[in-house]
Amino acid sequence: MSQHRYLLSEDRIPKAWYNINADMPVAPAPVLHPGTLEPITPDFLSVLFPMSLIQQEMSPERWVEIPEPVREIYRLWRPTPLIRAVRLEKELDTPAHIYFKYEGSSPVGSHKPNTAVAQAFYNKEAGTKALTTETGAGQWGSSLAMACHFFGLALEIYMVKVSYHQKPYRRVIMQTYGAEVHASPTDRTHYGRSVLAQSPDSPGSLGMAISEAVEVAATSGGTKKYSLGSVLNHVLMHQTVIGLEALEQMEMAGEYPDVIIGCAGGGSNFAGFAYPFVWKNLKDGQRTRVVAVEPDSCPTLTKGVYTFDYGDAAATAPVVKMHTLGHTFIPPGIHAGGLRYHGMAPSVSALVDHGDIEARAVGQLETFAAAVQFIRSEGIIPAPESAHAVRAAIDEALVCKRDGVKKVIVFNLSGHGHFDMMAYDAYLGGQLENYAYPAEHVAEAMGHLPKV
Ligand SMILES: *Cc1c(COP(=O)(O)O)cnc(C)c1O
Q1: Which residues pair with 182 in a beta bridge?
Q2: Residues 42-70: what's their mean pLDDT?
Q3: Atom number in ligand 1 closest to CA 339
Q4: Residue 19 and residue 284: Cα distance in Å, rounded?
Q5: Is 239 in the pocket of ligand 1 (CB under 6 A)?
Q6: N or C: which end of the chain has fewer CB within 10 A?
Q7: How many angstroms is it from 414 CA to the middle of ligand 1?
Q8: Could you give the domains of the chain?
Q9: d(Cα 320, Cα 343) in Å, to the nearest integer?
Q10: Residue-wise pLDDT tens digits, 112-151
Q11: Residue 189 to residue 180: CA distance in whole angstroms
């Protein structure tokens, strides 16, 4: 092992996921039925999810055992490395120590298989034959396509139309794993047809694709279930293998983080990485700062309102209390495809609201500048989503330099950017711009909130 790579052996893959429900400093808000706005029952959810995942969603247990067939597949790429970015530290001339946990080492290149494999397993165990899901740029779709194939499940994917056409490589990956991929909005669903009737050239959105995938599962007469790649409690919990490994790797490194950083779209890689450290803050009195980073162009935590909203564009998904830009949000064409959801995981929102987690928004240009600096010093090409965490980590390290203080900064590099080189091309060619989402748009969208 080289000096600055902290590698765990296979038997150190965590045996249980960490469930922050057990330690939340604030009581969870009820999840509401989108029609009646009354608290939902497990019955409503059981149309979409197997009972085992619904139980995990609501479980108060701190530790949930990871089934052996899931750990066996995790062994294909876990434990992932924790690396000290020594060359970046030198380049920045900072006294800070910068570490990153590298989730780009999974077969599809991101953290998303950590939950895809678990969800496919529980569905298989419950007798599900097929899953439906949505995908933006295709990272989630390719993760679930791999997982479904491993467990012998069919998969129908609704892919945001603009990505379907602009990012064909991940579509082909999904198809290669054996999944069926449709450009959303489609004419296959009632909701998709209604969107197309109004705007035939709709580029689609994650919210629309969710509505289509949910409709297909909900009207399948029980043959198909639905799977979501972020936002839900059980998804965040499955991702905690990242932070649990990182805790142990920081122990190997002989340091403890002063600052933990992750990028936040729906909140899953951020929470999966950060919650074990939040737990140490809450239970052991550690004082680590925990920072969620989002794009200026989709500033859910920093400009959104903490309130009840629908999880999808069609207002058919449950209503949850979260930071939201409004379910009518149509994202601007930024390159961080995985960070364009209108809402946020409810537990992340609650912890931001309660002051346990900080939130920051960064611009697209500064984000790519940080990514290029990282690439040129560490060699790894971050996904544009992950580059938001790189930006924030570099900013923290520069503050350390200015103040002459040594801090330990640890961030999650949620995925590699090998399929995002058109975005880098646009950046290098000077074609990218900054775009801050206007506060007036948020205020306008608040007029469409459910009347809770
Ligand atoms: C999907 C994705 C994200 C954003 O999703 P979260 O649920 O917020 O983690 C971030 N990074 C990468 C590489 C992704 O694929």
Answers
A1: 158
A2: 95
A3: 4
A4: 16
A5: no
A6: N
A7: 7
A8: 5-9+77-109+240-448 (3.40.50.1100), 16-66+112-233 (3.40.50.1100)
A9: 9
A10: 999 999 999 999 999 999 999 999 889 999 999 999 999 9
A11: 15
